Amino acid sequence: MNIVNARLRGREGLFHIALDGSQIAAISEQPAMVSASAGDLDAANNLVVAPFVEPHIHLDATLTAGEPAWNMSGTLFEGIERWAERKALVTHEDTKTRAKKTIDMLVDHGIQHVRTHVDVTDPTLAALKAMIEVREETRHLIDLQIVAFPQEGIESYAGGRTLMEQAVALGADVVGGIPHFENTRDQGVSSIKFLMDLAERTGCLVDVHCDETDDPQSRFLEVLAEEARVRGMGERVTASHTTAMGSYDNAYCSKLFRLLKQSKINFISCPTESIHLQGRFDNYPKRRGLTRVAEIDRAGMNICFGQDSIVDPWYPLGNGNILRVLEAGLHICHMLGYEDLKRSLDLITDNSARTLHLGERYGVEVGRPANLLILSAPDDYEMIRTQGYALVSVRNGEVLMRRTPAQIERA
Ligand SMILES: [Zn+2]
Predict the structure, then answer these.
(1) How far apart are alpha carbons 208 and 221 in whole angstroms?
(2) What's the CA-to-centroid distance between 118 and ligand 1, angstroms?
């Protein structure tokens, strides 16, 4: 199969992309528009990119909002209460059915790489076992990384350390953590040392829910970054949320950035979730409750956007469309300058792939997997401005999803 009349990010002109089975076989310049042969795909002067990435989601909790009760206040704490009620009703099949339904929603919007956090603070590890089956059963749709995520803490939850070790032994790909939720500062620090040891010993990646609070005294990011720096593991380590950074004073943050850059760790921000859940203890002026996305990016560090929740006790909306999160994030983070808009898709493609450590399994380049999207616009700016879509998603050289845009008839 070939894709003709394609635009590529960062390159001038039109391109012809030849796919050979499940690989990209050749990319050549096209002097002019051509008509597509039977069996080929016509990008019609629009962008062809590697698939979108969802780097931070909780597939074991999605599609549960309102069951049995809605989160009426919209706060993180009522979300935890409502989830405790729903968690009591969770079964193996229930987890698998909701996760697969959500994966279909992600696939419909051009996502083919997903990192999901799965709650392992459960002596039966039921959700984890269900998600490991889902990872196998959806391989034709997505590449799924599973994070062993201790929702109720590693040190503060009975048997927390053992459950983390068991989760990795069962097949989790990534070690998680939640240091700011542990009962004491000391437990937060020791939880990070424990999870970094576990990852180093087992070769897992690391992705920690880190400082997801407006508390300017929540400073576990420096601990995670220093552990990563000393062990030389930075490129394999991710700090998710780090929303407290939005409340740090500038003098501390300036010192912190020196360490963050040396550590080489990655960052994930979930802008729709954080603007909804944070700032809840403020009157006015009211904080946005996000990490310093633009500043991290400008400092040359790697940051990407994730959805976090889809219709769960913490966030009632979402439809799988990461472009919606990108648009919101660019607004919330003051990133509508033209230089940012021109490369805005980095935040849901290349930067996210680097966070997930996908390496040569990702990218529109000869010899890489024939996984790509045809978008509805010729460049990043037009994708955002027109609220564009992934029109076609190709995986292993075959069409996985095709979207027909709505037609408008004018009188
Ligand atoms: Zn999360």
Answers:
(1) 9
(2) 9
Are 328 and 256 in a shared domain? yes
CATH code at position 373: 2.30.40.10
pLDDT for res 45: 98
pLDDT at residue 327, rounded to an integer: 98
397, part of any domain: yes
Over residues 386-399, the mean pLDDT reads: 97
Examine residue 411 and state whether it is found in any structural domain, yes or no: no
Instruction: Determine the distance separating the centroid of ligand 1 and the alpha carbon of 151, expressed in angstroms.
Output: 9
Distance 349 CA to ligand 1 centre (A): 19
Sheet holding 2-7, edge to edge: 23-30, 14-20, 2-7, 41-49, 372-375, 390-395, 398-402
On whether both 341 and 369 belong to a single domain, the answer is no
Note whether residue 376 is domain-resident: yes
On whether both 185 and 221 belong to a single domain, the answer is yes
pLDDT of residue 277: 96
The pLDDT tens digits for 85-123 are: 998 889 999 999 999 999 999 999 999 999 999 999 999
pLDDT at 162: 98
- Find the 360 Cα to ligand 1 centroid distance in Å: 27
Which pLDDT does position 88 carry in this prediction? 86
Q: How many domains does the chain fold into?
A: 2
268 plus 384 within the same structural domain: no
- φ/ψ of 199, rounded to 5, equals -65, -40
Global pTM exceeds 0.85:
yes
Predicted confidence band of residue 133 (pLDDT cuts 50, 70, 90)? very high
> At which residue do the structure tokens 């990461």 appear?
322
Segments forming the whole domain that contains residue 84:
52-360
Helix axes of 185-202 and 221-231: crossing angle, nearest 10 degrees: 30
Question: What residues act catalytically?
Answer: 212
Reduced to 3 states (helix: H, G, I; strand: E, B; else coil), residue 118 is: strand
